Amino acid sequence: MAPTIPETRGPMPSPADATAKPSRASLNALKPLLPYAFAHRGRVIGAIGALIVASAATLVVPVAVRQMIDYGFSDAHSGLIHLYFVGLIGVVAVLAIASGVRYYLVMTLGERVVADLRGDVFAHLTRLDLSFFDVEKTGELVSRLTADTTQPQGDLRLVGVRFALRNFFMFVGAVAMMVVTSPKLSAYVLAAIPIIVLPLYAAGRTVTARSRRAQDRLADATAFAAESLSAVRVMQAFVAEAFAAARFRAAAEEAFDAARR
Fold first, then answer.
1. Domain 30-181 listed as CATH 1.20.1560.10
2. What is d(CA 18, CA 124) in angstroms, rounded to the nearest whole number?
3. What pLDDT, in 10s, does the model give residues 156-199?
């Protein structure tokens, strides 16, 4: 059963307040989404299992190719070349099936969780006091309900977690294989990893912050358009069409600039 969203009586926090918090808050904000994912634990377990199988098959592919080249084309084992080809094809088939199953389970898990989240958010909005709707714009609430609820979908599709788990399994397996092959060369490779990873990590955090700002600007433009069109009679009565169009154009430009950055 999906968890209930805690009641809030005050106004919603502004985007500036959200961006002013430490970056770790963005990770803590994902914790309430975990029960939504665990409610479909069968898909989670299946996706992790398929991920492990796909990672193992990825590591085995170079070994299978090496075995086929080293032994399949030698005179001593020329009669077994077809067996090595069959083994290589079997490894690739396992990799393809496991990758397909993983992708299907992860994608459907994200869609299922977002649907549950939207239902709970709307049910929560219907229980709020009328004073809340006097402070907040209806257009912004609709934008948050439709557009912003899709943002956690990337996380629940394991776009980040999926790659992290897959890379972790492959890292452990690849390091073990390298150490067995050549410990000295393995030490050189491991020493270069921080030099490569740290700049990428810093760049990723910058892109995440800019993406959040772009989403906030788009929500502002959508909210203004919804509020203006819902009160179009009042707007035309005061001959404010040009003013509203200029305001929306400016908001759209701000959203474009945020997306471009």
1. yes
2. 21
3. 444 566 677 778 888 888 888 888 888 888 888 888 888 888 88
